[in-house]
Design brief:
Blueprint (H helix, E strand, L loop, with lengths): L5 H13 L14 H23 L5 H9 L1 H33 L6 H17 L2 H28 L17 H13 L21 H27 L1 H4 L5 H6 L3 E2 L3 E2 L2 H16 L1
Length: 279
């Protein structure tokens, strides 16, 4: 059996959950609070998944289902999960190809962009879990540095207006609950169910819960920060009608009439997340 380390699990969790999520503004009706509520509610799902894995430490999701639900029902639910994972992968591929096609390469046939992504992902799959997790571990620092640079440039461009975040909970708690249940829980926090396929490969099972929870908290704070930045830069009224609020925010960066039009940087960062998620 292929083995993966604690830091590889952390890196994979972070990049998988980030994916293309920063590109969108989730739960715009409830402003910045909804991401926090979704993170808290999603942590309950994480606890359930970790409990299941810790009780079946050497089994992957299909074997867990077959062992506890029987051959036929377990196989049926396994097939349902395969369809779900395939759908999510295809949707991620199509969404990112649309972004590239609309924003940068309008003359390039869409199927060419999709084909390139599928070939790269297929090659990564062919190399196995251990190699792919090592690649993700290598990409994580560069991805985080890229996002940190974007935040620094947001600050340097003086386009952040925190007063646009007010008022908080202006319509009460119900809009937050409606937006976070199930929208934000299912995307992105609920998708961590896919890790039930990989946690059994961890070489030190005792570190599973600590590594997964620490990565989950980091991603929650990260996504909350970018939700807040989009709202503070664009204003909720503009954010709510923007297809890709983060891309629009990045286009506003202008430092010394020299550093501007950083769309390729954010697209590269989003691609890393999409590549990890679809693979």
């Amino acid at each position: 059996m292929e083995k993966i380390g604690k830091y590889q699990i952390i890196a994979m969790t972070i990049l998988f959950m980030i994916g293309s999520t920063p590109l969108y503004e989730l739960g715009i009706d409830a402003k910045q609070v909804v991401m926090l509520a979704g993170m808290i509610a999603g942590s309950l799902l994480l606890y359930v998944y970790l409990y299941i894995q810790n009780r079946n430490s050497n089994l992957s999701l299909p074997r867990i289902l077959n062992q506890h639900l029987g051959k036929y029902l377990g196989s049926f639910i396994t097939i349902a999960y395969i369809v779900y994972f395939s759908y999510e992968s295809m949707r991620n591929t199509r969404e990112f190809s649309d972004i590239i096609n609309i924003s940068f390469l309008p003359s390039t046939p869409l199927y060419i962009l999709i084909l390139l992504m599928v070939v790269l992902s297929g090659y990564a799959v062919s190399k196995g879990i251990e190699v792919f997790f090592r690649v993700v571990e290598f990409m994580l620092p560069f991805t985080l540095i890229g996002y940190i640079l974007i935040i620094i440039m947001f600050i340097g461009s003086n386009i952040i207006h925190l007063e646009r975040l007010m008022p908080i909970l202006e319509n009460g708690i119900l809009p937050v609950l409606r937006a976070s249940l199930p929208e934000v829980i299912s995307f992105p926090f609920g998708q961590i169910v896919v890790f039930l396929m990989f946690w059994s490969h961890l070489d030190d099972k005792k570190t599973l819960s600590k590594a997964s929870v620490s990565a989950y908290i980091f991603v929650g704070i990260f996504l909350l920060l970018f939700n807040i930045l989009n709202l503070a830069i664009l204003d909720p009224s503009i954010t709510s009608i923007s297809t890709f609020p983060l891309l629009r925010s990045v286009r506003l960066i202008q430092i010394a009439n020299f550093l501007e039009r950083l769309d390729p940087l954010i697209i590269m960062l989003i691609y890393i997340g999409i590549f990890v998620k679809m693979t």
